[in-house]
Amino acid sequence: MTMRLDYLSIFPGYFDVLDISLLGKAVDNGLVEVHAHDLRDWTHDRHRTVDDTPCGGGAGMVMKPDPWGEAFDGIIGIEPDPSVHVIFPTPSGIPFTQSAAQELSTVERVVFCCGRYEGIDHRVIDYARTMWTVHELSLGDYVLNGGEVAALAITEAVVRLIPGFMGNPESLAEESFSPGQERLLEYPLFTRPVSWRGMDVPEVLMSGHHGRIAEWRREESLLLTRDRRPDLTD
Ligand SMILES: COC(=O)c1cc2cc(CO)sc2[nH]1
To answer: Which residues of this UniProt protein bind S-adenosyl-L-methionine (predicted)?
Structure first.
């Protein structure tokens, strides 16, 4: 199956980057189809206005609902379709996790709505919920100027899980947060040269003793997780 990804933003150029590296390869081999759209193409005034002052007062500007509604009509359609997943990256969203990425990797169509200014008129999200499957997703508790960078992060997390995308699917199995990895952080990695600037690769990794190597790696993962992410150990 081919996944279709649409991006709605006043900075569609952010998504040019999807033509390069692994994601570019996925585009080339037909696994994904990417379309970035300029929200201002659905405005009708000379200044291509997409924002206005917040009702009820407050600082900054809010994105007007009209351009979003017309963009939805043009890009997705006017008939409800729960098979379309619409994602609003937002700091007030539910935390985006690897399991959410796993679920989204089986979806045929995803539309990212990237806010700017203080955010999008809430009626846009409410309308979208009447039409499609909506996800308001947060990447973490920090502030960005818009949803574009978050949309790129979510895209990478999702697309790399599409069957046939990664050359070596085994490499997915051992990663942090992979299913069956009991939510442990990944152990430290080493490669040649064995000695580098006075630092040597841990001997056990050069022993060829697979049982001891697996034991060392598990211990390192447990120590690292306990130290950095006690929240994952409960
Ligand atoms: C107007 O700002 C946004 O639309 C916006 C989207 C996101 C996502 C963040 C990370 O969870 S911070 C942020 N700001």
So the answer is: 115, 139-144
Site to substitute for ligand 1 among 10, 143, 148, 155, most atoms within 8 A of C-beta:
143
For each of the domains in the chain, give its residue range(s) and CATH number, in order of start. Answer: 3-160 (3.40.1280.10), 169-232 (1.10.1270.20)
Please say whether the beta carbons of 11 and 115 come within 8 A. no
Q: Is the CB of 112 under 6 A from ligand 1?
A: no
Ligand 1 close to Cβ of residue 144 (< 6 A): yes
ipTM of the complex: 0.94
Contact 136, 90 (CB under 8 A): yes
Reported as a single tens digit per residue, the pLDDT across 123-161 is 999 999 999 999 999 999 999 999 999 999 999 999 999
Ligand 1 mean position, distance from CA 149 (Å): 8
CA 144 to chain centre: 14
Question: pTM value?
Answer: 0.94
Q: Is 12 in the pocket of ligand 1 (CB under 6 A)?
A: no
pLDDT tens profile 52-108: 999 999 999 999 999 999 999 999 999 999 999 999 999 999 999 999 999 999 999
The answer to whether residues 37 and 75 touch, using CB atoms and an 8 Å cutoff, is yes
